[in-house]
Amino acid sequence: MTYGRAAVLRLALASESADLADLARGMVRTDTDDWGHPGAHTEHAARLLTAAQEVLRLAVATDRSAGASWTTIGEALEVTKQAASERFGKQTAAYDDAVLRGWLLADVPRDP
Q1: Phi-psi region of 91 (alpha: psi -120 to 50; beta: other; left: phi over 0)
Q2: Which helix (H) or strand (E) holds 81?
Q3: How many CB atoms lie within 10 A of CB 48?
Q4: What is the pTM of this model?
Q5: How far apart are CA 66 and CA 44, in angstroms?
Q6: What are all long-range contacts of 56-59, with beta carbons under 8 Å and residues at least 24 apart?
Q7: Residues 31-58: tens digit of each pLDDT
Q8: What's the sign of the alpha-carbon dihedral 7, 8, 13, 18?
């Protein structure tokens, strides 16, 4: 089955969002849980932040693939359209390129 660009990005966004939710649930522990070592809470929170940033990048790419303008993206982020474009433009283009490569190479055998 072949998916369009928007569908592939939505699937990636859904997957990353589910991973983020699982990671966030890991922060909800009781005082009897073993956190391992001093700094473990901070390390976990840093991983959570990194995952959230990836979800945001995918959300922007998904919205752009659905036709959202940089003005709309900027408003959602409470920044200017220029700031939104500068922050997410290259990554959005990289996601589009990756999806396009996936389409073009879908039937090409690859080395494992």
Answers
A1: alpha
A2: helix 81-104
A3: 15
A4: 0.80
A5: 33
A6: 57/88, 57/91, 57/92, 57/95, 58/9, 58/12, 58/13, 58/16, 58/95, 59/13
A7: 666 667 788 888 989 999 999 999 999 9
A8: positive
